[in-house]
C-alpha cells in the first residue's frame, strides 16, 4: 500500500507538468487552430526566466571600505564576498530572504516576459500560417523551437543550472506517519507537493477565466464559431492573440516552478514536447478538460510503470508505456478521451 501511494504521488507530480504544458497547447490549438511545436520551448524559456531572475538577485558589489591585511610586510586587499544589491537595499535579513525565495518570486518576472514572447511569436510568425496545412505549422514551429534552444545554449551554456527551492521547502513530508504507516515509509519532497498544488491552482484559474469572465466567454464562442463572432463586430483575432500570450505564460509558469525539481538545461523543452503532444492527442484535440485528465492519467501510469517490480518483469516499459496507452486509446476512441467531432478530421 505504501508503494502504491508513493507512485500515485509521483504520478500526480509528473502529471502536473504534462497537464500544464498540454493545457497551453490545447488553448493555442482550440483558439487559433495552430499545431504549435514550439510550446515545449516556452516551457524551457519559463525555466530560464527563473534562472535569470535568480542571477539578477545575486548580482552584487564589493564594498569600498574593504580594508586591507598586512602579511610579512606586504599589504593585501581584504578577501570579501560580493554583497548582493538586494541585501544592501533591504537589509541582511530581508535581502537574503528575497534571494532564498527567488524561484517563487520569479513568477512576477516570468508572467510579463512570457506574455510578451507569446504575443510577439503569434504576431511575428504564427499568424502567417493560420490557413496553411498543419504540416507547415509543425515544421515552422519546430524550427522555431530549435532556434530558441540554440539561443539559450549560446547564452547559458550546455550544462544544467541548479536553481534551488526556498529553504522552507527543503526536505520531505512524512505521509507514512500521517496515514498511520511506519514513520519514514512514505516520504515525499515538499517542493514536488508545492508543484502539484501550484499546477492545480493554475489549471483552476484558466478554467475559471474561460468560464466566468466576459473575455473568456467570447473566446469560447470564437473557438466554437469564429465567423459568427466576427460578424457580431467583435475583434476575435485580438482576443486570440491575447490567449496565445496567456498560453505562453501558462507554459512559462510550469517551467519556472519546475526548476528546483529538474535543473534547467537547453534541451528540457524538447524532453517534454513529444510527451505533451501525446497527452493532447490522448485527451482529445481541442479539449481542455481532456488535456488535463490525460496529463494526470498518463503521469500516474508512467509512475507505476517505473516501479522496480514492473521493470523486473518488463524491462524498459516505463520508456514506452505512454505511447502504448496512446495507441490503445486511439484504436478504441479515435478522437481521444474527450475529443470533439470534426477537430483535425477534415
TrEMBL record:
GO biological process assignments: amino acid transport
Protein name from the UniProt record: LIV-I protein H
Chain ranges passing through the membrane: 16-35, 42-62, 101-126, 195-219, 239-260, 272-301, 313-331
Single GO MF descriptor: transmembrane transporter activity
Family: Belongs to the binding-protein-dependent transport system permease family. LivHM subfamily.
Species in which this protein is naturally found: Jannaschia seosinensis
Keywords: Amino-acid transport, Cell membrane, Membrane, Transmembrane, Transmembrane helix, Transport
InterPro entries reported for this sequence: ABC_transp_permease, BCAA_transport_permease
Lineage, uppermost ranks: Bacteria, Pseudomonadati, Pseudomonadota, Alphaproteobacteria, Rhodobacterales
Bilayer topology annotation: Multi-pass membrane protein
Any single GO CC term annotated in Swiss-Prot or TrEMBL for this entry: plasma membrane
Subcellular location: Cell membrane
Amino acid at each position: 500500500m505504501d508503494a502504491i501511494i508513493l507512485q500515485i504521488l509521483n504520478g500526480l507530480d509528473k502529471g502536473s507538468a504534462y497537464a500544464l504544458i498540454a493545457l497551453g497547447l490545447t488553448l493555442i490549438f482550440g483558439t487559433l487552430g495552430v499545431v504549435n511545436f514550439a510550446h515545449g520551448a516556452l516551457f524551457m524559456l519559463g525555466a530560464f526566466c527563473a534562472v535569470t531572475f535568480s542571477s539578477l538577485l545575486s548580482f552584487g558589489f564589493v564594498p569600498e571600505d574593504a580594508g586591507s591585511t598586512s602579511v610579512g610586510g606586504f599589504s593585501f586587499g581584504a578577501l570579501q564576498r560580493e554583497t548582493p544589491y538586494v541585501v544592501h537595499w533591504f537589509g541582511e535579513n530581508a535581502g537574503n530572504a528575497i534571494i532564498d525565495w527567488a524561484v517563487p518570486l520569479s513568477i512576477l518576472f516570468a508572467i510579463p516576459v512570457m506574455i510578451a514572447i507569446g504575443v510577439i511569436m503569434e504576431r511575428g510568425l504564427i499568424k502567417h500560417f493560420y490557413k496553411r496545412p498543419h504540416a507547415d505549422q509543425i515544421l515552422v514551429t519546430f524550427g522555431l523551437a530549435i532556434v530558441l534552444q540554440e539561443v539559450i545554449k549560446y547564452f547559458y551554456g550546455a550544462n544544467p543550472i541548479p536553481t534551488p527551492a526556498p529553504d522552507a521547502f527543503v526536505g520531505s513530508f512524512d505521509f507514512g506517519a500521517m496515514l498511520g504507516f511506519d514513520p519514514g515509509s512514505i516520504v515525499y519532497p515538499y517542493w514536488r507537493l508545492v508543484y502539484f498544488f501550484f499546477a492545480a491552482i493554475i489549471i483552476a484559474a484558466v478554467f475559471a477565466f474561460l468560464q466566468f469572465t466576459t473575455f473568456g466567454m467570447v473566446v469560447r464562442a470564437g473557438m466554437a464559431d469564429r465567423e459568427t463572432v466576427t460578424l457580431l463586430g467583435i475583434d476575435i483575432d485580438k482576443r486570440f492573440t491575447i490567449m496565445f500570450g496567456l498560453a505562453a505564460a501558462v507554459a512559462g509558469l510550469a517551467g519556472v516552478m519546475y526548476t528546483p525539481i529538474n535543473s534547467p538545461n537547453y534541451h528540457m523543452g524538447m524532453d517534454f514536447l513529444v510527451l505533451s503532444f501525446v497527452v493532447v492527442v490522448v485527451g482529445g484535440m481541442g479539449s481542455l478538460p481532456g488535456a488535463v485528465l490525460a496529463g494526470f492519467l498518463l503521469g500516474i501510469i508512467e509512475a507505476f510503470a517505473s516501479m522496480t517490480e514492473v521493470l523486473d518483469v518488463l524491462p524498459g516499459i516505463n520508456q514506452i508505456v505512454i505511447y502504448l496507452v496512446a495507441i490503445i486509446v486511439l484504436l478504441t476512441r479515435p478522437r481521444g478521451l474527450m475529443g470533439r467531432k470534426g477537430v483535425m478530421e477534415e
